[in-house]
From TrEMBL:
InterPro entries: aa-tRNA-synth_II/BPL/LPL (IPR045864), Anticodon-bd (IPR004154), Anticodon-bd_dom_sf (IPR036621), HisRS-like_core (IPR041715), HisRS/HisZ (IPR004516). This is histidine--tRNA ligase. Residues 72-153 form the Class II Histidinyl-tRNA synthetase (HisRS)-like catalytic core domain. The keyword Ribosomal protein does not apply. One of its GO terms (cellular component) is cytoplasm. Belongs to the class-II aminoacyl-tRNA synthetase family. One of its GO terms (molecular function) is nucleotide binding. Its EC number is 6.1.1.21.
Amino acid sequence: GLSFQLNSTGCPVCRPEYLKALSAYYADYADEICEDCQRRLAKNPLRLLDCKNRPCRSIIENAPQIIYSLCMECSDHFGELKSYLDALERPYTINNRLVRGLDYYTKTVFEVWVEGIGAQSAICGGGRYDGLTEMIGGPPTPAIGFASGMDRVLLTMKHQGIAPSGIPKPTVGVAYLGSDAKAGAVMLVQTLREQQVGTTALWENRSLKAQMKHADRIGVDFTLILGEDEIAAGTVT
């Protein structure tokens, strides 16, 4: 089966303090870690948690966990993400050693693992990189993305007996009004997709008016609106 591995790597505000703690911890084991980790300790301490060499694994197990160093914003963000996954009844595993190893990641990182395809079990990995656009000269742009190895995906599909299928064209758009309705809107989108109804989320931090304009622009046949009144009544508009 598949497992969803999840962690937060913090942000430029809280990560530096964690890196200091991690480096201080590893300084006591500088003569015991592998040559790769000795280089990582000097250049990119976060990658220490990603080492697969057996001598380093026991050291990693007792290393400081970044989850306890998150600032309030990162902690709240991570809690909100988990609440959406819980609402969708999507199982996940908090993996305190998952870091992805790239400096441009902020807050969320994740991987999808699968059993039965050999030692390289991750078929997908990614996370948030809210500061990446600024790093290359662009405007502040929140972003999230992932990469997936097609060879591993095809191997997994073959192993599980899954044939490729088409993706339904979105015919329904879901909008929400009020922060209390957002989790319900996320669940509604997921429920419709599970029923093979082509559904798209319209919000992306838009106002309700902007969500409706977006629905017209992409040409969905139906737009469902979920607000506080609908939540209370157990209906949609």
